[in-house]
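Honest question from a wet-lab person: if I give you the sequences of every part of a complex, can you actually get the arrangement of the whole thing, not just the pieces? Trying it with mine:
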Amino acid sequence: MQIWPVIFALVLLSLVGFAVGQWRATVVLSRNEYLHSRPGHHGWYTALITFLPALVILIAVSFYLPHTIDAATLENLPHNEQPVDALSRQVALNEIQSLSQHSGILPSSPAMAEAAKNYEVRLRQATLWLAISVLGTAIIGLVVSSSQITTQFKARSIVEAIFMGGLSLSSVIAILITVGIVLSLLFESIRFFEKVPLLNFLGTSWSTQMAIRSDQVGSVGSFGALPLIYGTAFISLIAMLVAVPIGLMSAIYLTQYASLKMRRILKPVLEILAGVPTVVYGVFAVITIAPAIRAWGQSMGIDATSDSALAAGLVMGVMIIPFMSSMSDDALTAVPQSMRDGSLALGATPSETIRKVLLPAALPGIAGSFLLAISRAIGETMIVVMAAGQAANLTINPFKSVTTVTVQIVAALTGGDETFDSPRTLVAFALGLLLFIITLLLNIIALRVVKKYREAYD
Amino acid sequence: MNKQDVSAVKMTALNCNVYYNEKQAIKDVTIDIRADEVTAFIGPSGCGKSTFLRCLNRMNDTIAGCRVTGDIKLDGEDIYGKAMDVVQLRARVGMVFQKPNPFPKSIYENIAYGPRIHGLISNKTGLDEVVKNSLQKAGLWEEVKDRLNESGTALSGGQQQRLCIARAIAVNPEVILMDEPCSALDPIATAKIEELIEELRGRYAIVIVTHNMQQAARVSQKTAFFHLGSMVEYGATTDIFTNPRKERTKDYITGRYG
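Yes, you can. This is the full assembly:
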């Protein structure tokens, strides 16, 4: 269906509507009477009344028409060529559509060639109907709305109400999509737990290899998620050990010691770190850090694997530094200058002032940035997929490979040609839900802390 | 100079100039500040009186682009000289700010902060004593003695300002600089601070910057009038207010501008 010319014409009509509305309002205004709304509002009003109802019709018709055309076309096929199931129906439709586009294929039967011609005619008619109904509505809207213009017509209130409606619709859409994602996670997780008991999921053994035939040993894989949670926590811990001191100290340097010029250079450079795609960090971890750590570990007599918690954790820590530093920076900057002056005026050194006045005062904000950085670390995927490994080890040796929740979600969905109803695939949703709950809790705590901190100074 | 001598000059400034980057904020100010008196700096907004005050304990060091020339001496020692440590200087020359700025810590910790960092007192009883003494001197003890562990920021504005004065007193300074200490307070709290200044006079050299001419007349013995970065006139407060020598001073105190 040729829909673009219709849309183009509709937009054009709306622009005309704007011009007409504004012009008419100007004419009314020139009578030197008080006008409730400015000519621009009348323009917007006319344009919106031209555009919106027609848009609704356009959307409704363009969803509805293709189905009726398809159904009508197939109905006209001779009885012996009627499709018997959904698949053959689709095959027949595809052939008819290809034939109608004259793409050079030969019809499989004379009836098909007939149907294709039929289809073409219907399509042309439908497009015509679409154009007439949409543009007709638009023109009616234009005429009606432009005739409404009087000095007292409340075009401004209506236009503002429509825009407010549009804004709240956008936020509702964002919320609905989030709710939809959570619900789909929840339902798929329920399907998973129908097949695998919750106790299995909370176990310590992660081995999703399942027997193909049910009479074989170990027909149900073990889906103990604890090693994954442990791995996630372990790598996040290493990352935080890197990110917190470096991020915090660089924030202290940038806010308290660096000259304005230094700060102008260093802050953007640090923020560039936040803009590096995580896959680049992953490559860096695999190509550079992991082999270096392995060589170093082996030279010290430690049994190190090529994938290691340490490599993934260190690189992830580097990735998190800018979050930690820029949020701590904000928290420290938010401490009023008068606190700093008060301390310095008592003869405290800058470092005493930082340790005893500024850091305690900024502590809630710093704690908030810490929690947000952790939830970022927990949800991080690319670096761990590339550098942490697949083995679900419960080990405290950072030179060993561990695996994380996110890594196993990726593995579950990309691992093989499993169908979507096998526990091996469905476990991804259960893990996703788990991850979602953990990061949600952390974010709630973080936001609470940050909010409390906002109330501290006013 | 003898510290015990009540008529001693505590601080002197000689041909002091202050620049913010290229802009000159203070022009050639020369003044003696006596240990036994309250000295008031008055003048219209932006005349440089606060800027000059902040030179006296080098708080201007914290402002980027600020440069001070000339001599400022504390007991004959050049405070911008190499031998002077800014941390020690500020312990000797305390400061109270325009807006009360207690730390978000308990009342007790607010007072104990200074003595602790300077290592003046190490044991708990000694510290308790200093806290009590300082709060008594600042006239706040009776109001807060039962709630020393409450946050300093929970006090009223006037109480917060007296807490800040007590905090300054706790490090045992020789000079206390007050930068419009009452401008954020109501008349009753202002009256209390003024009484307090009167009580502290003699124990500390006090320099107060104020917008309020009546306040300067009430609390000070010496007054310096600043205008456009220069010190126009300096003398006994009674002379400045009853018999000013300069036309500009007269115009200002009679309310013709400012």
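Two things worth pointing out. Strands of chain A lie at 206-207, 222-223. The longest helix of chain A spans residues 155-195.
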